[in-house]
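Render this sequence as a predicted structure.
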Amino acid sequence: MTATTEDGPQEEYDPQRHAGLYGAQRLKAMSAVLLALLLSVLDYAIANVALPLIAQDLHASSSRAIWVVNAYQLANLSCLLPLASLGSRVGFARLSQLGIFLFLIASVACALSQNLLELTLARALQGMGGACIMSVNIALVRFIYPHKELGRGIALNGLFVGLGVALGPSLGSLILSVASWPWIFWINLPLALAALALAHAALPQTPRSDIPTDMVGSLLTVASFALTGVGLDGLMHADFLSGGVVTVAGVLCWAMLLHYQRERLEPIVPVDLLARRPFLLACLVGFLGFVASNLYIVAMPFTLASAFHRGAGTIGLLIAPWAVGVATMSFVVSRLADRFPASILSSIGLAITASGFCLLWFLPTDASNWAIAWRTLFAGCGFGLFQPPNNRAIMVTAPPGREGGASGMLSVARLAGQTSGALLVAGLFTVFPHPAFICLGAAMVAALTGSALSLGRKYLAA
């Protein structure tokens, strides 16, 4: 069944397959999804705040310490689409449980790391666990909420992403004020155990695909993302020879992968979904939005430390308003995402985010904490307005049976944007001695570009 919206003919669903859950069943299932989501987002946000201390303790440069973030994101990004495909075959609930277990083991390894290499590898394993969770997260929401309320479920999902990011800096600052950085990973253990128990008891069983797992496609997908990401990181650190060779190898893997996937019935890289223009546009808007957000999120702790001369405890508190704004606006927009098109809501949201970055850009270095905080909150509110409508636009485009591919691609757009933003930060830190405000300017440009693309999707999708 296909419905037409102001963003174009894009809504496809099966009234029986997407009937959703009700009452206590929905409450328990959604609680399991949100707790697993909170686990992965909370740890990512805490690690960002600890980057300056980790760099100092492990005797690493600021640009190299960013690999604590990049390793998680690159492993997560590389594994998302193969795991989304696997989830369609083994069940979304089972894959989510596996992800929580991997995340728990990797958190212990992170806490016990003695050098940057060990921590980077442990974070990569943590990223794989997060990929298991994130690749099927929205697909599970698709089965928990009926189609007419899907926007509300996705907005609630966005609310918990915001809560995780909001709690992360504050919790990280609190931990770092009384303990060393390994404790930001130890706190994952009780949360992971609770999430695992609830997921086992409450997540719904979803229809499974009987198409065999594509191992060749999976390996090519991982190699394509990983080699391209590592190569680009080398280029950003001015390692042009090895970085260029690895990047070329990644591009060749992409060419092989796309050629191989053309004849597949359910391709791991969902070229069938990307051929749908509304789906492609929503993914591009999501990508640009998260490029902008990570240019801000990754660079801002260093900006606050070097340009505004704030301590570790204060840095977390000054970043927290971003996530408070995201969470607050995600709650507000939950009733709007099913009523108004993403071409309006998401465009306004990214324009507000760009305005917030612009206001931060013009701040003097002796600005008060309040001056920094309210501008950060304003930018976060815009991002919270942008996310749920755009995520809904991605999911309702997928035909029945392709929920896993759409959910994986939604997360790929997010993580590809975040990883690209982090790589740009590393590059700017390598090229410029004081890149703090340059990163803010680049974030503003990315957000404005995404807003313009979102505004025009009604006409571009025709």
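Summary. The chain has a mean pLDDT of 82. The first helix runs from residue 23 to 57.
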